[in-house]
C-alpha cells in the first residue's frame, strides 16, 4: 500500500520529556533546538520538499513552546502565541497550502500535521470546559490544566469514517455541496459516542445515500489536520445499488466501475476528478481499484 | 468474529430528528416515548438482560432530554440534569456495574454505552472551551452551543489503540499498576494528533515495552463508555522479544504462547486472567488465538 498522506513522521515524540521538567528546560535551552517556521499556520517548504525551521530565538516574546519531538539529535518545537485565532474554513485551505501539501515530503507533512493540529487546539481551547476558567499549558504543550478545578484537558482527535460501498464491481462516490466541479469522493462522517468504526460506516452510508451495507473492512488510516481528525478508511458491501440521497448532506452520488476508477487514478478524464494524493480517499480508491 | 462488546445497538440514531425542531418536539410529546432508567449512571438490568425504561414523566423537572434514537416505533431518551457531577474513576466501575455489563444483552449494552458517554460529556463540558461562557444544549443533546462566541461543541470521542505484539507464536501482554492480581491485557494508549492508527500502535508498544514492531493489522473496534473512547484493536509483528519496561506505565510485561492464550480463554488457569467478554481485549485475544 502507498503510505497514506500525513503519515511517516520522522520525529520521536519523546513522550517522556513532556513529564520531565528538567529535561524539557534543557531542551528549550539547547542552542541546537529547532523552531518550525509557520506563517498563519502555513508551512514554509524548501525546494526539496522539507519544512523550514529556524532557531527558538525567532519565536515571539509571548510564545509558548510546544515540543514536537526529537530528530537528528535536536529538540524540535512549534510556537503558539496565546490569543491567536485560527480558522480551518475551506477558504483557509488556500491554493498555496494545497501546493505546499503536494510538495512536502511524506514525513515532513506528518510533522506539519501534528504541529498544525496542536496549535489549532490551543487556539480554540483556552478555557476549561468543566468550569469556564482560563487554562494554562502543561506537558510541553500536550495538555492544558485548569487552575480552578484542576481538570486536565488533552488535544482532541475526532475519529471520522471515510468509505466506499461496493456493489458488483462498482464503488459508491458522493459529491458534497459546493465542492469544486467534477469532484466526487468517498463518503465520510464523524463517528459518534457509542459506535464502533464498522457501525459508523454503515450508519453514514445509509444516512447519506440510503444504501444498506454489511461486511465493513478496514483499509487504512491517516491524520487530517484541518483541524484534527483521524480518518479511518473502509470498504463495505452494499446489498443493492439503489440510492436515496440525503440532500442536506450530498448533492449527488454515483456508482463508478473499477476500470474507470483505475483509469482516473492513472490520470485519464472520467466521471470524477481524482482526490489529491495526500487525502486518504486517494489511498482508499487506489487500494480498492487493485480489486 | 464474536461481535465486540458495546456494539450491535438496536436504536436508529435518527440524526435527522436532531436538526428538526418540530419533529423533536413531537418526539418529546409522544406519550409512548421511553426514558432510560439510570441511577448515578448505573443501568437497571432486567432478568432477561434488557435495560430498564420508564416514561418521560419520571425525568426530574430540571432535566434536559437527550435523544438516543428510535426503536420499536418509539423515541428513546436519556435525561441529563445540569450540574450533575459524574466520575469515571475505577472505583465508580463498581462490582454492581461490572455485573450489569456481564448480564446486559449486546445491543442493550450499546445503547447504555451511548447514553453514558453522552451524559458524561454534558456533565464535564458545560462551558465553552473557546471563551469560557456557559453553553446550552442543542441538536437534541448531541451538541452544546456558546451564546457568546457561537462556537459549537460536539461530544468528544477519544481514539485509543489497543494491541498485542506477536513474536514467534507468542503475544505480548502488559500489566498496569494497581490492576487486580493476575490481570494482564493488551497494551493500550491514546492516539495523538498527527498520528495514524498504525503509527500510534507502534509508538505505544515501543514506549511502554521497548519493543519495535511493524506490519500493524487492524482487527476490530468498539466504543468504551468510561467516559467515551473508541477502542481500536490491532496486532503487530515484533522484531524480537526483548522487553524494556517503562515502569511509569507498566508493572510487568510477558510473552504468552498461543496455546496458553487459548486455554485461558477457554476457562483454564494460566499466566493471566482472561479479560471480560465486553472488553475488546477479549475479542482481540480470541481472534489472535485462532492463529
TrEMBL record, chains A, B:
GO terms for biological process: NAD+ catabolic process; NADP+ catabolic process. Keywords: Hydrolase, Magnesium, Metal-binding, NAD. Pfam families: NUDIX, Zn_ribbon_NUD. GO terms for cellular component: cytosol. InterPro entries: NAD-cap_RNA_hydrolase_NudC (IPR050241), NudC-like_C (IPR049734), Nudix_hydrolase (IPR020476), NUDIX_hydrolase-like_dom_sf (IPR015797), NUDIX_hydrolase_CS (IPR020084), NUDIX_hydrolase_dom (IPR000086), Znr_NADH_PPase (IPR015376). Its EC number is 3.6.1.22. This is NAD(+) diphosphatase. The gene is nudC. It catalyses: a 5'-end NAD(+)-phospho-ribonucleoside in mRNA + H2O = a 5'-end phospho-adenosine-phospho-ribonucleoside in mRNA + beta-nicotinamide D-ribonucleotide + 2 H(+). It comes from Sphingomonas aliaeris. Residues 155-286 form the Nudix hydrolase domain. Its cofactor is Zn(2+); Mg(2+). NCBIfam families: PRK00241.1.
Amino acid at each position: 500500500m502507498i503510505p497514506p498522506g500525513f503519515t511517516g513522521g520522522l520525529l520521536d515524540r519523546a513522550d517522556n520529556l513532556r513529564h520531565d521538567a528538567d529535561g524539557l528546560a534543557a531542551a528549550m535551552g539547547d542552542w541546537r533546538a529547532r523552531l518550525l517556521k509557520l506563517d498563519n499556520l502555513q508551512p514554509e517548504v524548501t525546494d526539496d520538499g522539507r519544512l523550514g525551521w529556524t532557531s527558538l530565538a525567532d519565536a515571539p516574546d509571548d510564545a509558548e513552546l510546544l515540543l514536537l519531538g526529537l530528530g537528528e539529535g535536536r529538540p524540535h518545537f512549534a510556537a503558539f502565541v496565546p490569543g491567536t485565532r485560527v480558522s480551518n474554513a475551506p477558504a483557509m485551505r488556500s491554493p498555496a497550502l494545497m501546493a505546499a501539501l503536494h510538495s512536502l515530503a511524506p514525513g515532513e507533512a506528518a510533522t506539519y500535521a501534528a504541529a498544525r493540529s496542536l496549535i489549532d487546539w490551543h487556539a480554540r481551547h483556552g478555557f476549561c470546559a468543566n468550569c469556564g476558567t482560563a487554562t494554562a499549558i502543561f506537558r510541553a504543550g500536550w495538555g492544558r490544566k485548569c487552575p480552578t478545578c484542576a481538570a486536565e484537558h488533552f488535544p482532541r482527535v475526532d475519529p471520522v469514517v471515510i468509505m466506499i460501498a461496493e456493489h458488483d464491481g462498482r464503488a459508491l462516490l458522493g459529491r458534497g455541496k459546493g465542492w469544486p466541479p467534477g469532484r466526487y469522493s468517498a463518503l465520510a462522517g464523524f463517528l459518534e459516542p457509542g459506535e464502533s468504526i464498522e457501525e459508523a460506516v454503515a450508519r453514514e452510508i445509509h444516512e447519506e445515500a440510503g444504501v444498506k451495507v454489511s461486511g465493513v473492512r478496514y483499509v487504512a488510516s491517516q491524520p487530517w489536520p484541518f483541524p484534527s481528525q483521524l480518518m479511518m478508511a473502509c470498504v463495505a458491501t452494499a446489498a443493492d445499488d439503489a440510492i436515496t440521497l440525503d440532500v442536506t448532506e450530498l448533492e449527488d452520488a454515483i456508482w463508478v466501475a473499477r476500470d474507470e476508477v483505475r483509469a482516473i487514478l492513472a490520470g485519464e478524464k472520467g466521471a470524477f476528478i481524482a482526490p489529491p494524493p495526500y487525502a486518504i480517499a486517494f489511498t482508499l480508491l487506489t487500494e480498492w481499484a487493485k480489486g
